[in-house]
Amino acid sequence: MFQWVGTSWEWLVANAAVFSGVGTVSMALIWAVYLQLILHNFRQAKKPELIINRFKGHDFNAHCLLSNMSTGTAFIESVIVRLRRGEHLYYGEVTDLGSNLSGADKDVIEQENLRYVTRQGPINQGECLDAGRFGLLIQRVADLNELALDDTLQPCDGEPFTQIEVLTVNIYGRQRHPVGACRSFRITRDQQGGYFLSPERPMTKQLLSRRERQNIEQWKASLGNPDNAV
Description:
By secondary structure, the chain is an alpha+beta fold. Helices cover 30% and strands 30% of the residues.
């Protein structure tokens, strides 16, 4: 037995350099994986995240809520809404709310009144912005596209809207390129004849890659009519 122990010890001593090299490589791999996880978590923490949701109901009286879940401030540059009706799509920029204030026509609008006339502006981390009722968004897009709506906010000629999609164009910190967030809601009719909204995806889609940012430009281009800048 002592002879076996001595032989094993001699073998270990003879191959000490090999074991040292293997240990060094293993430790390097462990640190590489660890650093990769740290880098991944850092990137995830810095990743822009704007949530689009509805609140205060499920019908057209529900409000559209924009929530900034990023680690920094998000600047809302513009808000675009797209309505689907069969094979037809209708776009409208709804960034501004219109002149609802007695002083809104002044050369300078007081800062505390800005939220009453525009959806453009910064949203701090963890804060949210009420973008208005979905029914109002539908009406604005219809007006921009010269569509007559009935009392249920559906086109008068019979073919109803089946989807509303909200796109925000956002700027975060020192980013050179604006990014976007987009979420679509299915429009369904209930047994009482009313219409309600249901999200088509569990989460808001973040438009961050170069290809996805091209979709933002396509949305802007689809506005078509220069009068669509409300």
